[in-house]
Specification:
The complex is a heterodimer. By secondary structure, chain A is an alpha/beta fold. Helix content of chain A is about 40%, strand content about 25%. Chain A has a domain at about 10-85 and about 175-265: 3-Layer(aba) Sandwich (Rossmann fold), CATH 3.40.50.300. Chain A has helices at about 45-55, 75-80, 100-105, 115-120, 125-140, 160-170, 190-205, 215-220, 240-245, 245-255, 260-264; strands spanning about 10-15, 20-30, 35-40, 60-65, 70, 85, 175-180, 210, 225-230, 235-240. In chain A, strand 7 (about 175-180), helix 7 (about 190-205) and strand 8 form a beta-alpha-beta unit. Chain B is mainly α. In chain B, helix 9 crosses helix 10 (about 235-255) and helix 10 packs across helix 11. The longest helix of chain B has about 30 residues, at about 1-30. Chain B is globular. Classes of the chains: A alpha/beta, B mainly alpha.
Chain lengths: ~260, ~290
């Protein structure tokens, strides 16, 4: 991991909702090709930070540098066009569409034929459709969701839905993959399987991954780099081995009472 | 028998006129998952714009282009001032917003074009054609062909293309659609423009029938049973729903109405719709709700 040219760098990001501070002056860097994990108790601002990076929220202060371009605010469609793909904490799939259709929507920005060609089945439409289908099927194979290909995703169990959402993000061939609690609600085996997919994608495709996760065991195994948030501020940032012994992190997780500190 | 056929055909043709209004609802329902209360006002507004421009002495084709242009501008305004600020809100919030849009449209239409009834002559005669003893209105046949053509074109556009998938995606989860790179503003403007165009067509045909006047916005009441029967999310469904509504209400009026002193045509379609709600709550072609419990 070199500090030379990070793929993503956040500088002094602050975000508030009608005066309630969600994120206070957070800065960190994500190196190209690493798995970076954001951890922290509930309400620490992890998902808000994702929303800032993907352009859903506009930060009050600070800047986001992605792949060499500086943004005061990220535009969601710019982000999608430039290779930022994400999953959501409360699964955001198109429930009435099938698994295959959901994955295919991930190819939206790679489709070259126009609506008219598509409607009339002319020109590039046929070869284009075949190409997109091939990419989608490949992802379906990798993630072992072929058996459910034609089922509406709304009917699948939670763990599988998480996997489909991961697939939809993956099929767009992102440079930066933001995974919001990809292992939440899974049993031990599902977690193992899912984290293996994440590692494979990172290693084989070189995709940079930023993930939010609560399971410390998984995080310490998976991540090259851990950023710890608490009450909207960054309290630690470094390799997993270092972070696990950090005093502030232990306090945040084991429930050091903040009021006591204030009183002392 | 001949009389039966004449009533049936008359009903079917009238029914297609209802489909024409219903299509506008389906388009917007597909793209935003919301029942657009303003569709009736859009029908009225577009027809009034056309007639108003026509009465200024502008030739018919140019008036049509202008009216269409106004509907596209309207789509941009609605996207900017209503849909964008309310992204990711509940369908009820959006529904109430469209209620607001309908008040604004009707108000603006009255300020600009006044409240009197305008006659509209599309140059198509309403004289009946004699098909071996069965009389059919020429105008009805024309209207029916226009509606059928629209259903066909829109059906291909929205079911066979990426646009269709994008629409369903946007309706299902706008935020997720955004994250895979579907441009919400573009989709919304396209859909509301097309809904405006469909509204214009419906407004012209109904306006030629009834005169362009404020009660025109009430034809949405006829579209409701069509939507319930055909399904809110299916364009071909509106055609089938319209045919069922048109045929059943005319036949009921003639054959059942005569037993109870008539007047059942206005509400009979609601009874049919109610029956469908009990048996097939998503309509004939609607997408069932997918929910894992």
């Amino acid at each position: 991991m070199s500090d030379a040219e990070p793929i993503l760098s956040l500088e002094h990001i602050s975000l508030s909702f009608r005066g309630v501070k969600a994120i206070t002056d957070i800065s960190f860097r994500v190196a190209r090709g690493e798995i970076c994990s954001l951890i922290g108790p509930n309400g620490a601002g992890k998902s808000s930070l994702f929303n800032v990076v993907s352009g859903v929220y506009v930060p009050d202060v600070g800047s986001i540098t992605y792949d060499g371009t500086v943004h005061q605010r990220m535009d969601p469609s710019w982000a999608a066009r430039h290779g930022i793909a994400r999953t959501f904490q409360n699964i955001a799939l198109f429930k009435r569409m099938t698994v295959l259709e959901n994955i295919l929507t991930g190819r939206t920005l790679h489709t070259r034929s126009s609506f008219l060609e598509h409607a009339l089945r002319l020109g590039r439409a046929a070869s284009d459709a075949r190409e997109q289908r091939k990419k989608a099927e490949k992802i379906i194979d990798i993630l072992h969701i072929g058996d459910h290909r034609d089922e509406p995703v709304g009917k699948l169990p939670y763990g599988l839905q998480k996997r489909v959402e991961f697939g939809r993000a993956l099929v767009s061939e992102p440079k930066l993959l933001l995974l919001d609690e990809p292992l939440a609600g899974m049993n031990y085996e599902e977690k193992l399987e899912m984290s293996r997919y994440v590692v494979d994608v990172n290693r084989d495709l070189g995709t940079t991954v930023v993930l939010i996760e609560h399971d410390m065991g998984v995080v310490l195994d998976l991540a090259h780099h851990v950023v710890v948030l608490d009450y909207g501020s960054k309290i630690a940032d470094g390799p997993p081995a270092e972070v696990r012994h950090d005093r502030g992190v232990i306090d945040a997780y084991l429930g050091q009472v903040h009021d006591e500190e204030a009183a002392a | 028998m001949q009389f039966f056929i004449e009533v049936l055909v008359g009903g079917l043709l009238a029914g297609i006129m209802y489909s024409l209004v219903a299509i506008g609802f389906v388009l917007i329902y597909k793209a935003s998952g919301v029942f657009n209360f303003a569709q009736g006002s859009m029908v009225l507004f577009s027809a009034l714009t056309y007639v108003g421009v026509l009465e200024l002495g502008v030739p018919a084709w140019e008036a049509l282009t202008i009216a269409l242009g106004v509907m596209v501008i309207l789509a941009f305004i609605i996207e900017r001032t209503v849909l964008r600020p309310l992204v990711n809100r509940s369908p009820l919030t959006l529904f109430l917003a469209t209620l607001g849009v309908s008040f604004v449209l009707e108000g603006v239409a009255q300020i600009v074009w006044g409240a009197q009834v305008h006659g509209l002559d599309l140059g198509i005669s309403d004289e009946p054609i004699d098909l071996s003893g069965v009389f059919i209105s020429k105008f009805d046949v024309f209207a029916a062909s226009v509606a059928a053509g629209l259903v066909l074109v829109l059906g291909v556009l929205f079911n066979r293309t990426r646009l269709g998938t994008a629409l369903r995606a946007v309706a299902d989860d706008p935020l997720a659609a955004l994250s895979v790179g579907i441009s919400l503003p573009k989709i919304w403007v396209v859909v509301w423009s097309v809904a405006g165009f469909v509204g214009l067509v419906a407004g012209l045909l109904w306006g030629a029938r009834l005169g362009v006047q404020f009660s025109l916005s009430l034809i949405v009441l006829k579209a409701l049973p069509v939507l319930i029967i055909g399904g809110f999310s299916s364009i071909p469904g509106t055609l089938v729903g319209g045919l069922i509504v048109g045929a059943s209400e005319k036949l009921a009026e003639v054959y059942i109405g005569s037993l109870v002193n008539g007047g059942i045509e206005v509400w009979f379609s609601y009874v049919v719709a109610l029956a469908f709600l009990l048996v097939r709550p998503n309509g004939l072609f609607g997408e069932p709700n997918v929910e894992r419990v």
